[in-house]
């Protein structure tokens, strides 16, 4: 018998790992810090990718692809960016192996095949892209450039967790070039809004929109906008960022254009991205102690039909009729005709994998003109008329999607606090972490001191925060607005 999933309340970290591995999202690999994304997990990523890709293209963006390797001199060109990622870089120094004379049967880097210049395996692509844009941009007529790429990146992590933090991960990264600050800022805001819509409308995950502090900004950015979500343990997860890069990369790579007044100036830039970390966010936002719970709009399988107790000609005929009808309405449905496992086993497996709706079909039910429908989020079951099944399932999928969002929003509301006293701040962070709105004096010194004492960081300066006079939660100095504090992944 398979080992039960750990309880969220007893060991949240192990619960998360149990779901990732047992639900078939990922597997461990031979490469330290890397994972194998299994078919169920990759199908989930494909759904995320396809929906976002459509949203990007609807706003005028196009896809391209840039090299995995970045010459070190290019990587060093924008100093803040290089410094920010330096500790995480993997570097290629040789291009060939040879037999090791001291250890027969083993290979070593060939000293005669050392690269003239070392290559950084991309941790992010600003350097290689802006070096390319220099050749693409001469005039305001060449702008804007609105490019996105779907790719993998490598950031050498010492402590890894599947999906949340791995040495190699999949993502998309948008890189745009503009003729004015105003246009670039509008672009950064537009992508910030797209990420918000995707998180809330498709992931059923409510988020807080805001700007990062100077200390938390993307290396090389003038402004970083973020969406922050609360996981079920009260910690925050950064679910997507959009950066206004100003002219920093244009200056570093000498990317200039002639404006409409025939004067030369540097280009304005943005970058923005989300990654396979979103799969980790889905796991931690909605799942329970029986396995994965997926929002229907992202689920690789939305409905599964299970014969009871096993496939039968009469059951099969009805199942195929229901399946084909649901498919014509755009629903992702499968009919499990496997005869090796009993219905109880199948029910548990589909529950573990997070399939939103399960329909059980038995001969007795057919005689009565009904089928049994079970929903994954609440585990409620209901006998539904065969004649009404299509209409019922369509409405049920919408109801599950909305329920997951409402449930996640209530969790956030129940664990969000407005705090004015340092002792209360410390107590909340020590007992059950949550979101705290508190005053901050605006200094990096105070921000780092709070992090040192509580491990809580400023997740963002909320977009909807109101101006109000107060005293910094830590220093007692004057403050004009509250910011969002939390422990985070």
Describe the overall structure.
The strands form seven sheets. This protein has an eleven-stranded mixed beta sheet with strand order 3-9-10-16-13-12-11-24-27-23-22, with helices on both faces. It has 14 helices and 27 strands. Helix content is 34%, strand content 28%. Strand 25 and strand 26 (478-479) form a beta hairpin. The chain is α+β, with helices and mostly antiparallel strands. The radius of gyration is 26 Å and the shape is globular. The longest helix is centred in the C-terminal third of the chain and has 26 residues, at 389-414.
The first-to-last residue Cα distance is 33 Å
Q: What's the pLDDT, averaged over the residues?
A: 97
Decide which structural class fits the backbone. Answer: alpha+beta
Strand content: 25-35%
Mass-distribution shape: globular
Strand order of the largest sheet: 3-9-10-16-13-12-11-24-27-23-22
Question: What descriptive keywords fit this protein?
Answer:
single chain; 489 residues; 5-stranded mixed beta sheet; 14 helices; 27 strands
In short:
The chain is an alpha+beta fold.
Q: Helices and strands in order, then pairings?
A:
Layout (H helix, E strand, L loop, with lengths): L11 H11 L3 E3 L6 E3 L1 H20 L3 E2 L5 E3 H4 L3 H7 L4 E5 L2 E3 L7 E3 L4 E8 L4 H11 L8 E10 L13 E11 L2 H21 L6 E4 L11 E8 L5 E11 L1 H5 L3 E3 L5 E3 L1 E8 L1 H10 L16 E6 L4 H16 L4 E3 L7 H10 L4 E6 H5 L2 E6 L5 E5 L3 H26 L1 E3 L3 H10 L3 E5 L4 H11 L2 E6 L7 E2 L6 E2 L2 E5 L3
Parallel strand pairs: 3-9, 17-18, 17-19, 22-23
Antiparallel strand pairs: 1-2, 4-8, 5-8, 6-7, 9-10, 10-16, 11-12, 11-24, 12-13, 13-16, 14-15, 19-20, 20-21, 23-27, 24-27, 25-26
Helix pairs in contact: 2-6
